[in-house]
């Protein structure tokens, strides 16, 4: 039995890049993914419509989680510190 991987995307104001990343991931490794794909996202008003369109047009199971406390940046900087320390 092959193990499946869980996928989490962190995104901020980049719905089109997220769309391409999801498409490429599914095309190349779709059989290895444990669905749904989790997406932690945040946006400003100028990008809100892009995320709504993405949610509507993607046909696979996605779990959108709105980042209301800006955890994206906190996690990103923790990860960056980890890379600097252990890299």
Secondary structure blueprint with pairings:
Elements (H helix, E strand, L loop, with lengths): L7 E5 L2 H15 L7 E6 L5 H10 L4 E5 L4 H16 L1
Parallel strand pairs: 1-2, 2-3
Question: Could you list some keywords that capture this structure?
Answer:
3 strands, flat, 3 helices, 3-stranded parallel β-sheet, single chain, 87 residues, alpha/beta
Protein described:
- The longest helix is centred in the C-terminal third of the chain and has 16 residues, at 71-86.
- It is flat and about 35 Å long.
- The chain has helices at 15-29, 48-57, 71-86, and strands at 8-12, 37-42, 62-66.
- Helices cover 47% and strands 18% of the residues.
- The protein contains 3 helices and 3 strands.
- The protein has a 3-stranded parallel sheet with strand order 1-2-3, with no helix packed on it.
- With 87 residues, it is α/β, with parallel strands linked by helices.
